[in-house]
Structures are given as C-alpha cells and as structure tokens.
Records
---
Amino acid sequence: MSETTRRAVITGTGSALPPRRVSNAELAEQIDTSDEWIVERTGIRFRHIAGPDETTSTLAADAARAAIAAAGIDAGEIDLIVLATATPDQTFPASATKVQAALGIDDCVAFDVAAVCSGFLYALQVADSMIRAGSAERALVIGAETFSRILDWEDRGTCVLFGDGAGAIVLEAQDSATEGGAGILATRLHADGRHNQLLYVDGGPSTTGTVGKLRMKGKEVFRHAVVNLASVMQEGLGAAGLEAADIDWVVPHQANARILDATAKKLGLAPEKVVVTVDRHANTSAASVPLALDTAVRDGRIKRGDLLVLEAMGGGFTWGAAVVRY
C-alpha cells in the first residue's frame, strides 16, 4: 500500500469579471496612446473595469460562489477564507469578512493578505499551512482587485496596464499519495523591501490619509521580474523534487506578455505550456493567477493529474511560486 500524506487539494475554481470591457482603442480616445503601442509593449488588448456598484468584495464573492459550485460543496462547509487584495473595500474590516457575510457563512476564520500581485501565492501558502496543521479542512483562497480605483488615468505608462477582477479556489484537506498524489506540493515566497520606490502607491492611512495612486518604474520592474520569477520557480520545483521538464502548465501572474515569454525562455519551457490571459484581462494584480487558472481549467487545458507551477511578483518587491498537482 502506497504512503499517503495530508495535503491541500484544489477541488474547485471560479472567477468573476466586471461586465464593462474596455479595449485599447477606447483608451486611445481618452489618453495619448494607441492599440499598437500597448500591444507591442505589453500584449494587452482588453481589460475589465468595475462599475459604481462593483467592489473588490462583490467580485470576490462572485468568484467564490463559482469555485464552491465547482467543488460541489455548500458554502457553510468553508472554515477558512483568505482574501489577497491591495484594493480592499475599506481600510478595515477585512474584505474577507464581507465575502463571508455575502456567502451566508455565520462563522469561519476570515482575513485579508496584502502582498500586491504576489498576494494569491502568499494567501495560498497560508491556507496550505493551516490545512496541513489541521486548523482548517476547507478553505477559500481568493485574489480580488479593483485596481482601476487607484490608477492615475493621465499616466499612460501605467493606466493601460491594469484591470479589475477576481479568482478563487477551494482547497480541501485530503489524504493524498506521497508520490504523484494531488495537492500543493511546495511553495516558496520572498520579499525585498529595498525596492519600494519601483512599484508603489503614493498614499495610505498612516502617511497621507488618502488612498493614493499607483506609481511604477516599468523597466526596472521588468528586469527584476524575469530574474526573480525564474529563480523562485526553480526553487519550488527543487523543493518538490521535480524539474522544469515535468511541468504540464505554468500559470503565471499576468503582468506583461514579454515577461511571460522571457521567464519561459529562461527555464527552457515551450511557450505553449504557459497559460496566457493578459491579452484579455490585463494585469489584475492578486486576481491574475487564480483568474488564469480558472480560465484554463474551464476550457479543458488543465486536467486532473497535471503538474502546475503558479508564480507571481509584485510591489514590495514580493514574489513566490507554488508547485501543485491538480
């Protein structure tokens, strides 16, 4: 009889996007840019923008409902909600508690994680650790953002890059085969606060008393991203006792098509193994990895038994990777 171990297994995925879909051409009517300029530099063609009645928590709740339905469970069976976001509904309480209430869950652990674009990876490791420790059985891990609310719409170098949306997964504790079994196999996280001024928001409750706007030095971020993402993916694979050749799919943070290409090339991976949604969704920060995952699960690319590597890097800098047998 093969050995088993307690693991956090993805049993459902879901996502939500605001109905309003904005093309590069529409943006070009408002700011000095063009479809060609944006596509050539980023690969982005569309992004979704939240309406007045849509918030980070409403998008998160919609994505959570879809993930719960896919997992075939009742919302009341969830005992942990970890929501990754840099754009919460309020300074406090945590938007995770608003999702909890929206789902009709009377009592469960619920809190937010702030690690910007890497937030979903951070939230995933937290939930995985709690499940392995036995303090949770079924967790909702969500990445949700309304980045349109913190963009400077006169800064053409940043406002064209981002969009709104949410993605969610259900993680369940299962006894999984030690060799070849499903679940989260390894996660690795990093942060380096020396690079704050390369990607940040110029406001906050404790400093300016305002929300602030996003600021970024794109070339420097690009350079760090390619190096850090390739490195942390190798680190995660090594921790799981696997190699790049074992990967079925890379599900990356959707920041820029050129970063995706460069990272794949650095690892010697075929571009066909990389899930790309940046053209449709733009950069949705903490939502981008679970959004891309749900897209590839629902269109049939990702199948049970596939080996996935999830990766992201964001402001902080923070970055991380997770190796998952789906």
---
Amino acid sequence: MSKIELKKELQKLTKEQLIEQITELYSMYKPVKEHYKIFLNPNNMQDLFEQYKAIIVNKFNPARIAWNIRTCFPAAKKAIKEFSALKPPPKLLADLWITLVENACDLTDQYGDMPEQHYDNTMDCFEKALTYMKKVGLLNDFKPRCKKCLKDAIKCGGGFSDGMSDVYYEYFEK
C-alpha cells in the first residue's frame, strides 16, 4: 500500500479510531513509542541518546565480553541504526559512532589479543564514523576522541594499529 492509499483509508476513520490505531501501534512497536516520546517532548532525545549509548558501552564491557564477543558489534550497530531512525541531531549520532569505536579500542587495550574480526569491525566502524562526521561537518568536533582511538590502537600494534592509522589519516592530516 502506498502512502497516498494509506492517507485515503485513514481519512475515512474517525478521530477516535485514529487515536486507537496510534495507541495500539505505540503499545506494539518500540520505534513508534520512541518516535512519539520525541515528537511530544523533543527534550527526550538526550534521554534516548543516553539509553542507546549505555547499550553500546554495555556490549563492550570487559566483564561481559567472554560470552558476547561475537555479538557486541552487531548489537552496537543495531542500537545506532535504531537511534538513527529517530532522526537525531547529527552530533548525537556521531557521538554514538565514536562511542562504539572508543569502547572497542578500550576493550582491545584491556582484554588483550582479540579475534581478527574484532579488529576488522573496529576499523570498519571507525571509517563509518569518520565518513558520517565528514558528511555532516563534525570532523573537527570529534578529532580529539578520534585521535585517542588511534593512540589506543597503537598500543596493540600490528595490522590493527596500521589499519586504524590509515583510516585516521584518510580524514585528518599527518
């Protein structure tokens, strides 16, 4: 069904029926609930940001990583995708991306040797974060945090350090 067809059908409903439809969707679907939470009170965006940030930080918690090493990146990316669907200010979305990279680098530093896929995912997310920041004009705002990610990666050495450096210097001058 197209939007036009949906609008035609919705116009046939009474106000009470529309309210019932919306409250039912609100109860059934988390994205709808979050949309209305922000629509009715834009100040709730910061609260939702903190919730999504906590999801990412939790997924990379060294105390929990033994059982979720393979799921931390997919879960963190899912959180970013869900938050992105809420149309947040670009600075908050960029903050979530760099939070993911910071926590992945910090985990590597604390936990020690990681599977190759962890390093690849971290570099991929770093590149996505920097690409997004460049697109929305926020590279300079996040440069100190990006540089810290690079420094944390250098501690690990090897291909991870080189890969992170390559990504960093693609967006920032040497």
